[in-house]
Design a protein that fits this description.
- The chain has 167 residues and is mainly α.
- The protein is built from six helices and three strands.
- A three-stranded mixed β-sheet has the order 1-2-3.
- Helix 3 runs antiparallel to helix 6.
- 25% of the residues are buried.
Length: 167
């Protein structure tokens, strides 16, 4: 495997480990702390990340299987993160099982991505639930996008930890 791909996969792994390390040992009070009614708790962010990796990991596997495959997003009502989070009661469910799964899921996806390293140029066509093409990405573009998204949420989680500790 090329050095560039190996680095991408290492970053993909490390940011998940960083999230788990940051939240390890946190109490329920910490995990469910909301700075305001409009901001998410750490628990909500963790559950959001789980839904995110479920969706994009499936897209990656489709893309690895066949270039040009179409991935259809869920119906529009689920595109609003807050709505989906509320429907799944993300601020009331324990995030610890999700945190435990995060590094294991990452290792699984890394194994799949390594096995098909020659298919990272495969294209995934992205469609809305209504059937409109909204873009396309290669598998090789999608993995760093997922890492960047997790890094953004890791920064927010760090802010929430600091905010909780400063109370």
């Amino acid at each position: 495997m090329e050095k560039e791909k190996a680095l991408i996969l290492e970053q993909y792994r490390q940011v998940a480990l960083d999230v788990v390390a940051l939240l390890e040992g946190k109490t329920d009070e910490e995990l469910f702390f909301k700075p305001s009614e409009t901001e998410w708790s750490m628990a909500e962010i963790v559950h959001h990340l789980s839904m995110d990796w479920d969706m994009w990991s499936f897209a990656i596997k489709l893309g690895l299987a066949e270039s040009g495959v179409t991935f259809v997003f869920p119906p529009a009502k689920f595109e609003e993160n807050e709505v989906f989070s509320a429907l799944l009661d993300n601020n009331a469910r324990d995030p610890r099982p999700t945190l435990a799964l995060m590094p294991v899921h990452r290792e699984y996806m890394i194994e799949v991505l390594r096995h098909f390293a020659d298919r990272w140029d495969h294209v995934i066509v992205l469609k809305s639930a209504e059937g409109k093409i909204v873009g396309e990405m290669t598998v090789g573009e999608l993995v760093p996008m997922m890492t960047a998204h997790l890094e953004e949420h890791l920064a927010t989680l760090r802010q929430l930890v600091a905010l909780f500790e400063s109370r």
